[in-house]
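so im writing up the methods section and need the ABC transporter ATPase record in one place, dumping it here so i stop losing it
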Amino acid sequence: MYIPFENLPQESRIWIYQSNRKFSDEEVAEIEKHLMQFIENWSAHGTSLEASFTIRYNRFIILSVNQEFHPATGCSIDSSVGFIQNLEQKYSVDLLDKMNVAFKQGEFITYKTLLEFKKLAKDKSVSENTIVFNNLVNTIEELNEGWEIPACESWHSRFF
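--- predicted struct ---
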């Protein structure tokens, strides 16, 4: 059951899928239609999930479930991963590789492998103040407070 993202409780569980490239506006519109269809049918043990999504910066797909209404289970999480894998194939993108880093360079989002990011840090091309996307956040509240943060405040700090 779809609920607008902004109407979900702050403690709702989230999953962030970071694309290795920016989606076009046309792709975002298509992906939103696919997400709406998926969310409307998403369930755990036959019970609809109170769920939503948002796409940020044409690059991050964020799924969310109100765990207080009905929690996501292993099978329902597996179905969401399968859905994301289908998006990867349809749009020729990588959404599941957690060994990559997205960060801001001015108004632009840059996407690098972890090794490339480590080298950029060593070469001082990025700093402790570089805004990174901490995709390890687990709730909407954490997304709002700790997703876009200086590298020194995230797990990225080990590279400085």
